């Protein structure tokens, strides 16, 4: 099979192939698990009982809270802010009666002992930092918020797309963990993986507009135990949306830029509508741009809405809804050979269908004729079409003076089609190519309920999370015309019927997670935290369609597999040993449930026979790790600093590996054994004079394989080699000057060399990147309260560099089509008004 066919046939969520033991011949791995609806498992009974226990716990707690409120004479408030709690009476702190605890502010993280989080995470027992809504304003409006998160130390964000619409060209790493190995939420709703074609994921740029984000909390080492995620081997990223304003108003923003970039955002806030405090907002976000390379374009539109309803003095109900739709043409993958031979200008043939027909027939453009595989250098078109729905309801209650609860119900749905015009499958029309669709649909329903109890110097927190997911991937092909003058298949309209289906699978997964934790303030300046989470991921699948000519079998194996962990512990602490100075440490064990795919495999599991799959059921172990970190923080008005050291021990490390020669490479997941990671992050923000801040950070990461590998009968010396794609060294600098409405900011990024292959015999060079922005805000400008004008330049020096890599996996040795070049210098201007 060809490299491109396999590369796009396996996608960024390739099938896990974890059945191998490092240093031995690796059997074919599989795509993941899920429990068949008819299969039986001993964990299912336990999980169902845990579910009933969680529901019962929630019901009893709410009933107790209702009785307590009734006994206290709590009645619905009639003030404009009924959810506000009256201040404690004088002397209450010493009277033996605990004063009422105010409800957490919008976006406050639920769980034990809500941590006071600053830019450097002051007060937290883990490495924890925040990105404010103001930080998002320094980016081009509409850019994915992951770019702002990427300014923190230890985080590597890359994209070929200036506005970040194209997911294929994006990657996000945190301490060497990919976005599919981290935990992401928005207002408590789990977003799942953020990678391209992630089976359970909703990219945050599809879930909420930047203007609606109030705060982002980032934990680089280990995430909070109450994070609803089964993928966070590493840290977590929690986005909190802002609430509707108390006064009626709105925001309108218009952006223009290079490559016909056009972005419009509008938001309306109702203000408080009645004495009970009802309020809502609704926003619309639309962006459109042409690709800076090639002749295609990218489009996205999104609607967000949120309602807040206080219920009495101690309860708040919130509901959130998101809908988005995209048609985003991707940038093509390059190999080192292609970049050296042709340069940085390779892209799809679109809109030249005749050139794509000729290439499929072996007649290539002159610049491609010197390549080892010119047929694989370019396709006619690659485009993503998708639609997402995200909805959630939360109930936040102060049940008693010492007992709080938070419950969130949510639903997520998506339809995703990844299109490539494949020159390896002919159409019925006689054309030597066809429109290949990697289609998927996902539906997730779930809830999480948490109880927090305050007792003397302890804060106990326990919770339960349940989710059911139905996931259906398929590989289909549509007819293309056999004439250069004819109209190719319209992937955006997508009204055709497939002439060929290679396979279609159905996954059904139930997730049960319970957590319990305690934060104990031992001394006024010493806090210890301990807890654990229990995880059961019970998943199964069935084969919906099978093409024996493609899969090589008339009866692909199917069945179920469970990933379970009785106790994943976490222990951390914080010691404030002097004014503005503190130490912290954290130790945690994490597990990732097997990711689900099907793309590029002969069965849902990747096993050739049922017997092979039964063997994998007995021998497979999910990927786990132990994370250790220790750090120091300094937080003064003039200096905010952080030094964090971390060590990670992996077990059953699974990597996306492209095997075989370049022209016939195929992406698989393989168990590469153990990996040891050591790293350090350091950052300092200086405010030497009023209005001026200077930020610097540096990150170093050494992530080495501890085992060799034999794959396909070939021995590979992996031991001691650095993991690919993630830079060993990164430096970031930001200078910001703000005075009387005027703002000037300048950012610098140094990205160190990154390895392409697992044996480190190929790599991409380091690069420097600079961005500049200037804005001015006018107050009381006519009918607008504020009017802001913003101008920015990305890639000021017009650097030529390789940005994203590993989109289709990495080769064990040598070259591979998995590199994307960065965007050239681009200009953007924005006018926004707040009413």
| Global Rg | 27 Å
Distance between the termini: 58 Å
Classify the helix fraction into a percent range: under 10%
Largest sheet: 22 strands, antiparallel, barrel
Number of helices: 9
- The overall pLDDT, averaged over residues, is 83
Shape: globular
Say how many strands there are: 39
Percentage beta strand: over 45%
Structural class of the secondary structure composition?
A: mainly beta
Low-confidence stretches: 1-118, 659-667
Task: Summarize the structure in words.
- Residues 1-118 and 659-667 have low confidence and may be disordered.
- The chain is mainly beta and 835 residues long.
- The strands form seven sheets. It has a 22-stranded antiparallel barrel. It has a five-stranded mixed sheet with strand order 1-7-8-5-6. The chain has a three-stranded antiparallel sheet with strand order 2-3-4.
- Helix content is 9%, strand content 47%.
- The protein contains nine helices and 39 strands.
Summed up, what is this model?
9% of the residues lie in helices and 47% in strands. Residues 1-118 and 659-667 have low confidence and may be disordered.
């Amino acid at each position: 099979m060809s490299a491109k066919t396999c590369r796009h046939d396996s996608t960024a969520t390739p099938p896990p192939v974890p059945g191998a033991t490092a240093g031995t011949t690796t059997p074919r791995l599989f795509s993941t698990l899920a429990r068949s609806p008819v299969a039986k498992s001993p964990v299912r009974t336990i999980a169902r009982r845990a579910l009933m226990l969680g529901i019962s716990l929630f019901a009893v707690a709410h009933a107790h809270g209702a009785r307590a409120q009734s006994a206290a004479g709590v009645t619905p408030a009639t003030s404009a802010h009924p959810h506000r709690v009256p201040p404690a009476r004088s002397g209450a702190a010493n009277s033996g009666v605990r004063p009422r605890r105010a409800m957490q502010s919008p976006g406050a993280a639920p769980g034990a002992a809500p941590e006071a989080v600053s830019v450097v995470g002051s007060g937290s027992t883990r490495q924890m930092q925040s990105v404010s809504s103001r930080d998002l304003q320094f980016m081009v409006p509409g850019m994915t918020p992951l770019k702002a998160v990427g300014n923190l130390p230890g985080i590597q964000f890359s994209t070929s797309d200036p506005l970040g619409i194209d997911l294929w060209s994006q990657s996000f790493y945190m301490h060497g963990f990919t976005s599919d190995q981290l935990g992401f939420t928005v207002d408590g709703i789990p977003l799942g993986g953020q990678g391209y074609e992630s089976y359970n994921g909703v990219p945050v740029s599809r879930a909420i507009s930047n203007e609606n984000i109030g705060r982002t909390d980032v934990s680089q080492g280990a995430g909070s135990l109450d994070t609803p995620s089964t993928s966070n081997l590493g840290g977590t990223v929690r986005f909190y949306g802002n609430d509707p304003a108390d006064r009626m108003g709105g925001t309108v923003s218009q952006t223009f830029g290079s490559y016909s970039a056009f972005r419009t955002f509008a938001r309306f806030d109702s203000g408080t509508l009645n004495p009970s405090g009802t309020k809502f907002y609704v926003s619309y976000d639309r962006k459109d741009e042409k690709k800076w390379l090639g002749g295609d374009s990218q489009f996205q539109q999104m609607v967000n809405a949120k309602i807040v309803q206080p219920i009495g003095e101690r309860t708040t109900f919130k509901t959130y809804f998101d809908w988005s739709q995209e048609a985003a043409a991707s940038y093509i993958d390059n190999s080192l050979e292609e970049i050296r031979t042709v340069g940085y200008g390779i892209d799809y043939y679109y809109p030249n269908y005749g050139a794509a027909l000729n290439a499929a027939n072996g007649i290539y453009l002159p610049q491609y004729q010197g390549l080892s595989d010119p047929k694989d250098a370019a396709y006619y078109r690659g485009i993503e079409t998708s639609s997402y729905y995200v909805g959630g309801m939360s109930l936040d209650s102060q049940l008693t003076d010492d007992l709080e609860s938070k419950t969130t119900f949510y639903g997520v749905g998506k339809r995703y089609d990844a299109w490539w015009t494949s020159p390896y499958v002919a159409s019925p029309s006689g054309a030597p190519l066809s429109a290949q669709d990697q289609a998927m649909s996902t539906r997730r329903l779930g809830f999480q309920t948490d109880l927090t109890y305050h007792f003397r110097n302890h804060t106990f927190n326990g919770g339960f999370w349940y989710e059911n997911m139905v996931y259906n991937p398929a590989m289909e092909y549509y007819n293309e015309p056999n004439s250069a003058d004819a109209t190719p298949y319209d992937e955006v309209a997508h009204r055709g019927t497939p002439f060929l289906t290679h396979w279609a699978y159905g996954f059904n997964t139930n997730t049960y997670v319970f957590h319990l934790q305690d934060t104990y303030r031992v001394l006024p300046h010493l806090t210890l935290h301990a807890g654990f989470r229990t995880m059961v991921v019970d998943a199964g699948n069935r084969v919906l369609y099978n093409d024996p000519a493609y899969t090589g079998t008339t009866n692909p194996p199917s069945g179920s597999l469970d990933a379970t962990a009785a106790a994943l512990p976490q222990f951390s602490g914080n010691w404030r040993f002097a004014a503005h100075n503190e130490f912290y440490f954290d130790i945690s064990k994490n597990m990732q449930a097997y990711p689900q795919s099907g793309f590029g495999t002969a069965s849902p599991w990747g096993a050739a026979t049922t017997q092979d799959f039964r063997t994998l059921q007995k021998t497979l172990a999910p990927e786990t790790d132990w994370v250790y970190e220790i750090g120091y923080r300094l937080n003064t008005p003039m200096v905010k600093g952080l030094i964090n050291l971390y060590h990670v021990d992996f077990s059953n490390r699974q990597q996306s590996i492209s095997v075989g020669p370049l022209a016939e490479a195929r992406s698989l997941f393989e168990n590469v054994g153990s990996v040891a990671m050591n790293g350090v992050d350091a950052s300092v923000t200086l405010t030497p004079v009023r209005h001026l801040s200077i930020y610097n950070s540096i990150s170093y990461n050494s992530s080495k394989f501890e085992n060799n590998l034999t794959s396909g009968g070939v021995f590979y010396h992996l031991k001691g080699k650095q993991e690919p794609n993630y830079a060993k060294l990164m430096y970031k600098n930001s200078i910001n000057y703000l005075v009387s409405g005027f703002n000037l900011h300048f950012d610098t990024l140094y990205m160190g060399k990154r390895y392409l292959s697992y044996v480190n015999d190929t790599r991409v060079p380091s690069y420097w990147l600079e961005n500049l922005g200037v804005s001015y805000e006018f107050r009381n400008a006519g009918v607008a309260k504020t009017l802001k004008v913003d101008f920015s330049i990305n890639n000021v020096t017009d650097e030529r560099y390789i940005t994203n890599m590993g989109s289709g996996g990495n080769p064990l040795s040598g070259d591979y089509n998995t590199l994307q070049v960065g965007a050239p210098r681009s200009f953007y201007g924005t006018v926004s008004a707040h009413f």
